[in-house]
Design a protein that fits this description.
Strand order of the largest sheet: 3-2-1-4
Shape: globular
Strand content: 5-15%
Distance between the termini: 51 Å
Radius of gyration: 18 Å
Helix content: 40-55%
Largest sheet: 4 strands, parallel
Order of helices and strands: HEHEHEHHEHHHHHH
């Protein structure tokens, strides 16, 4: 049985220890999308460090239909926040690509999260910060993240926590239900996470924790995604000359 309060308290202590060892007096910089993961990570950081050491960064690309959820979170936590619209930067990259190069749809989807991570590190470096990674175990398991985009960061509170468990932590933190239960949408192609993946997070989380899944096709889908995306979780391979 998952004990959300116990794990929340352990994570809060872990964040405090991280900052003691890797940035005493630094601020936590959190990209705020309005989704549950960034909300939970920001709330954990506030409990660990105090609201004066947590900075939220809202990064719409032009108009963001659910930006109100991001504002709800920063107002609920009472944290300082900045708004940086990444539309011009994303378009500048795309508009300056070589004309003879066919830019794929996947490339177009992954440029915004990489620009957002560049933005987070720019603010972090200017604000004595450490960037929070907001990915969870469920997403990492099937590679549902952008390498050097949302998969980057200096510390990761949720990388060993499934979606199901993270939601319980969100409630233990006292976050509004609208944020904890918000339907996960990647913000890139307009579909929900579960539509893109072909299975629900409940099915995935049960498979991760218990090894049980009823649908063989979904099992094969999960296994294939996990196998193909393990490189995202590994350190970059580096050549070492023989002595």
């Amino acid at each position: 049985m998952f004990d959300a309060i116990k794990v929340k308290n352990q994570c809060v202590e872990w964040i405090r220890n991280f900052f003691e060892e890797n940035g005493k007096g630094c601020n936590a910089i959190v990209g705020i999308s309005g989704g549950k993961d960034s909300s939970i990570v920001a709330a954990l950081c506030v409990e660990a460090l105090g609201k004066d050491r947590v900075i939220g960064v809202l990064m719409p690309q032009g108009e963001q239909h659910d930006i109100d959820m991001a504002y709800m979170l920063v107002n609920h936590l009472g944290i300082k926040h900045y708004v940086v619209n990444v539309k011009d930067a994303v378009e500048a990259v795309l508009n300056n690509m070589p004309k003879e190069l066919e830019v794929t749809a996947q490339t177009r989807q992954n440029i915004p999260p990489r620009v957002r991570m560049t933005t987070l590190y720019a603010i972090s470096q200017s604000c004595n910060g450490r960037v929070a990674n907001t990915c969870n175990l469920s997403e990492d398991w099937v590679g549902y993240s952008t390498r050097y985009g949302d998969a980057a960061g200096d510390f990761s509170p949720l990388s060993n926590i499934t979606v199901t468990e993270a939601k319980q932590i969100g409630y233990a933190l006292g976050l509004p239900a609208q944020l904890v239960d918000k339907t996960p949408i990647d913000g890139l192609c307009g579909k929900t996470d579960e539509e893109n993946l072909g299975f629900t997070y409940a099915e995935l989380d049960r498979y991760i924790r218990e090894g049980i899944i009823d649908d063989e096709e979904k099992k094969n889908n999960i296994d294939r995604r996990h196998r193909n995306n393990l490189f995202k979780l590994a350190l970059m391979p580096s050549f070492k000359p023989e002595e």
